[in-house]
Amino acid sequence: FGALNINQRSVITTPYPTPDGDFTLLVTDWFKMSHKDLRKRLDAGYALPLSDGLLINGVSKGLIFTGEQGKTYKFRVSNVGIATSINFRIQDHTMSLIEVEGAHTLQETYESLDVHVGQSVTVLVTLKASVRDYYIVASTRFTKPILNTNASLRYLGSKNAVSGPLPVGPTYHIHWSMKQARTIRMNLTANAARPNPQGSFHYGTIPINRTLILANAATMIYGKLRYTVNRISYINPETPLKLADWYNISGVFDFKTMLSTPTIGPAHFGTSVFDVELHEFVEIIFQNDERSIQSWHMDGTSAFLVGYGSGTWNVTMRKRYNLVDAVARHTFQVYPLSWTSILVSLDNKGMWNLRSQIWSRRYLGQELYVRVWNDEKSIYTEADPPLNALYCGQAKRPR
Fold first, then answer.
1. Intervals of CATH 2.60.40.420 along the chain
2. pLDDT tens, residue by residue, 67-106
3. CATH homologous superfamily of domain 21-177?
4. What does the DSSP assignment read for 48-67?
5. Can you say how many angstroms the Cα of residue 176 is from the centroid of all Cα atoms in its chain?
6. Which of 105, 157, 275, 355 is the most buried (most CB within 10 A)?
7. Lowest-pLDDT range, 170-179, 192-201, 224-233?
8. How far apart are CA 117 and CA 334, in angstroms?
């Protein structure tokens, strides 16, 4: 159990001084039921209940992170749960946000931060308070009741353990969370994976080649709960999609299974794959008409999260987009009865999964695939299947 932390390359400078220490916090929701029992419940057609608690690094309480007064520490915080958004805060301390999912951000200061399922943030915390212990708190968002877990930030030499009530965080406050999310912006002059500045890719000037509007829903199919995207509840075919695509095996999937906009009608099962040409610039709108928050993850690339809004998306909402310094990330929250919009340059050839990061929803069908393709056969755009690839269904190992 632990984190895989990727540091910057030696040729990349960071837009902040080297911190005096580095802490990793993996926050997760926790169920008393085993994963097998959770799966049985879903298979029987029932939604999962609220989790029984929260953990930090696998512990419900008692963890201690020690630092020295006057020094600055990096806290890497990831929501590795399966269902629940969290709010993260440190008693009597502010946090300077420096990174979101691999992208350097403008260093805004926060008293608390919402972190949704599958998301990661990094903050700097300077220990300016009196020498004692302070609560580190993670609490659930948009749930009734609100669940809490805590650890301690201990100043070196402290003789006073944490005591008293936990610092209060936001409760439901959807609009508060959306407003906070809009303040998370890209640091255009900083470097990230490459020496060139993050702002050198002017995504806001690129014409949109295609728009996909994806509406999630909870529904019943054959008397059991399923989750859908544009009325399709995803099922895996017997033949892996990538092998079916590579070897031109017919009948495994159909690009016409899912339409690119929501329609009215009954939900049904299907293997949903969108066909997109390599290097197309695509606008994807996640439309959430449910009263629960959503979290979506896109494999294979990062995307610019350009807009949030309440209600139903329409083309006039593009006027609200951040076309200058939206953060590039892989995981996107969609607030209840709201929409989220991303812009993505699909420059990575392959068959990429786009799914709900909330485990129960993905398990019951809230996912699809995006096939990024062109007819150029080149190892510079896509490698051949590895020699140890597993073949099944209609895909047979070449002789």
1. 21-177, 201-373
2. 999 999 999 999 999 999 999 999 999 999 999 999 999 9
3. Cupredoxins -  blue copper proteins (2.60.40.420)
4. PPPPSEEEETTBSEEEEEEE
5. 19
6. 105
7. 192-201
8. 11
